[in-house]
Structure formats: C-alpha cells, structure tokens
Amino acid sequence: MAVWGPAGLDERSTIAEEILRLARETGDRETELAGRARRTATSIEAGDIHALEADIAVHARLAGELRMPFHQWTAATMQAMRVLLRGGLGEAEKLADEALFMQPERPNARFAHLDQLVVIRWEQGRLGELREVWQGFVERFPGVGFARGWLSLAEAEQGRDDDARRGLRSLVDDIPRLPRDGLWLPALALASLLAARLEAADDAASLYPLLSPYADRTVAITMPHPVVCLGSASLYLALLAAVASRWDEANSHFQTALRVNDRLGAAAFLARTRSEYARMLIRRDRPADRGRALQLLDQALAVARTLGLARLVQEISTLREIETGGTVTGVADEASAITGGHVFRREGDFWTVAYGGSVVRVRDSKGLHYLARLLAQPAREFHVVDLEAAESQPAQRARSERLARAGVAELEVRRDLGDAGELLDAKAKAAHRARLAELRAELDEAEQFSDATRAARSRQEIDFLEDELARAVGLGGRDRRAAAHGERARLNVTRAIRAGVANLARVNPSLGRHLTATIRTGRYCSYTPDPRAPIAWQL
C-alpha cells in the first residue's frame, strides 16, 4: 500500500489501468471488478465524476452477475458514497446499513459504515451522538489523525471548546509526522474544518502549506474503493486562508471549490462552500461584498433546506439574521419536516415531491399523474386501459361540455378499437428462436477462446432478438397484437411512467432508484414497496 496516499495518485491510476488491461486480455471478470474499484478511487480523487459514475455502474452490474459477497458489498458502499455526495442523507444511511448487513463481521465493512455514518450525522447536526465511538477509536489507535479530527469536531459541536482546541493542537503537531497514507489528506481536511470553527489562526497558518500542494484534488477516503468523498480540497484551503485573513487567497480557493463541487454534483459541499464564502466576504467587508454574501447565503439556504442539512440551515439562518437584522423563520421546523415526510402532490402546473430528505418541484406530465395513482394504492394492480381512461376522463368531460354548449353532438368512442393482427407470426418467432440458439452457442465458443469482439457481436444480436420476442409475446406466452388498443395503452402508459421516473431521478436520484425498484409496468401496473418498510405518501 506504499502508493495509497495523495502523492501516489498517478501511480495508482497506472496500476488500475494495468489491472483492467489484464482483465480484458484474460476475460477474468473478478479481476475487472478489482480494477474498476481501484479506478473509481483515482477518478474521484482527480475529480473525474463521469469516469467515476461509469465505473460504479459497470462494477455494480458485474458484482450482481457474479454474486460474490465481497464485491456486492463494495458496490453497495460505492452506491452509498455517491448518494451521500449528492446530499441524499436518508437514502445514503439506508444504503450504508444495507452494505454493512452484507459483511457485518468484516472490519473494513464496519469502518466504512462508520465513515459514511459520521458524515451523515455531521450534516444533520448530530455529530455529538458519535463522540464516544470516536473517543474509543482514538484510545485504541492514537496515531489515526482522521479519528481524532472527528472526535474534536464532535466536542466542538457539544460546546466543549477546550477539549476541541486540545484535539486541534494535537492534530497540528502530529499531521506532519503521520504516514501520508489514504487517511492523511482527510485528517488534514478535518483539522482545517476545526481550525476554521475555532478561529485558530496560528494553527491554520501551520496547516495551509501542508494542504496547498493538493489544491486540485478531491478529498476522499478509500479502501481501496471510495467510501466517502469530502469534496474539493480547495474548500479547506479557503477556510484556512480566511481564518488567517488572507483574503485574496481565500477568494481564489472559494471560487475553485465552487466550480469543483458543482462539477462533482456534491450538493451538500457546494452549499457549505457558498455559506463559508459568504462568511469570508462579510468579514472582508469590501464594497459589494455584503450583497454578494447575501446572494450566496440565499443560494446555500435553499439547497440546505431541500436536502435537510439541519446544521447548515441553522448556521446560515443565524449568519443571515445578523447581517439583515431580521429573522429567517421556521428554519429548524422546516428542515425537520422536510427530512421526515414523503410528498407527491400536484400544485397547479408543478408537482412538489419530497423523498429521502430532498424536496423538488417538477413540471406536470402525464407520467406523474399515473405515478400518483399508483402511489396512492400500494400493491394494487391497475390495467393500463383503466389508467389511461381515468386520466383522460376529465379532458373528455370538458370537451363534451364545450360541444354541448355549442349544440354539437359527439360521437361515442369505443375503448376497444381492435387490432391489426399478431406482431410476429409463428414462422417468424420460430426463426428468431432458432437464431438465438445459434448465437448462444457462438457466444459460448467466443468466451472459451477469449474472443471479446466476437462475443460482443453475439451479445448485441442476442439482445436485439430477445427484445423483439419480448415485444411480440406477452405474459403466459400470449401473442401481442399489432395496433391493439390494449397494446397501445401499454406502450403509452409505460413510456409516460418511465419518462416521469427519469425526470424525478434527474433531480432526486434516490427517489429515482426507489421508483425503479418498486414500480411495475406492463399490461398491469403497480407500486410495490417493501412491506417491512412501508412509505406513507402525502398526496
């Protein structure tokens, strides 16, 4: 693990690529999993979010296919990390718990769970709940600066400033001597947070040159795959520079941190960056600083409220109240309400949707109407014709009323409009199935000879033919009819629901995953959440 630390990023990237090259040459999918897990770590440290997400997706698929517990745990922890980075605290905690359940006796699994849980509690303003856990960790492993950082931040949150200052002083003395491994940079980031909170200018001055060489990095905890991301290192440099009243450097670092955290999709850290940037501008007090600060605070507060970041909401509201001489009302109650409820409610041309600590507003669409009807009656199956008819009735009634007022008679529309025959006849289906058998034999042979190109071609044609058969044959092997009214309704309703889920997933990824897992489409549609964890939607 000699290259585990921040100085070994380039070498670790090279190692990951070499592992993946060997995996491609040998066709060894477990080796590919190891390579992709390591590449996700180097991608996030370099701030390459697109490469990170691509590797996480492929890793999750491979882990699901191989069904090996360790790799499934790795995939689950990376999924929790990504959700947490986006600010989905509730969903991230659920995923972290599920990951721990997969490997409860594995020390790294317990440590990864604690790493993720502590960030969640910090954002919730509940870090003090874990103080004793970190106290025990520090007593067992006094040389782990990362643990001492969280302990001291928990003490500061509880108002034990003297203990927190002693912890900071110990960190500042120890960090230059600690091994520069994968926990060194996170320990430095936590010490920076602590120095800023305690306004310890001398300690900030000592920490700044240690962190400065890594200004372009993203701070992450890896083992070797990433389990926690703490955002742009420039945020922590900005905090240190601001404490030392080095305004120009702080300003430059804050601007870099805004760009990087925005690119990462690190919603919570982006809100925190805006809040701390505003605090620095207020302290600097140059012309136009106050107006810019209030703008940043408004932006940060909107995101913090949406994500349910209770601690940050309170900090921002207090700072804004001091600056404006007024009050920001209902902040604590609002954050509590947001994190605790599930809402799916239409309000005019928009829908307000709350899930997993996030509240969003999305434009009205037919798919959202279908989803609302399914969410209102969990486990009930709705025939697509009935769903479509229910949503069209209000429009039809309004049209009939307009025609009646105009004295025009309306033709009756039949619900079942017939069809144009089978999508695939018996001969075509037999030909498709015969070709599938040939392709599967070719795929087996290609995989035996490690012929990746031939295997990929075979898989592509297999996927196409299977899709064609699936489109033509319904439940129970019944043939689907071309242009059948029921078939048209199935296609229309399914497309609308999927589009609605996709739109929601873009603004609330955790909700997107929940709906993808629980919404069933086809001839019959339903919402089937886990009965052990029922969700009460406010509609």
Uncertain stretches: 326-339, 394-399, 408-416
Average residue pLDDT: 83
Number of domains: 2
Total strands: the figure is: 9
Rg, rounded, reads 28 Å
Helix/strand/pairing class, anyone?
Answer: alpha+beta
Tell me the number of helical segments per DSSP (H or I, 4 or more residues long).
23
Examine the secondary-structure arrangement and name the CATH architecture of the largest domain: Alpha Horseshoe
CATH topology of the largest domain: Serine Threonine Protein Phosphatase 5, Tetratricopeptide repeat
CATH class of the largest domain: Mainly Alpha
Strand arrangement in the largest pleated sheet: 5-4-3-9
Q: Biggest β-sheet: count, sense, barrel? A: 4 strands, mixed
Measured between the Cα atoms of the first and last residue, the distance is 52 Å
CATH superfamily of the largest domain: Tetratricopeptide repeat domain
Strand content: 5-15%
Oligomer: single chain
Given the C-alpha coordinates, what overall shape results?
A: globular
Proportion in helices = 55-70%
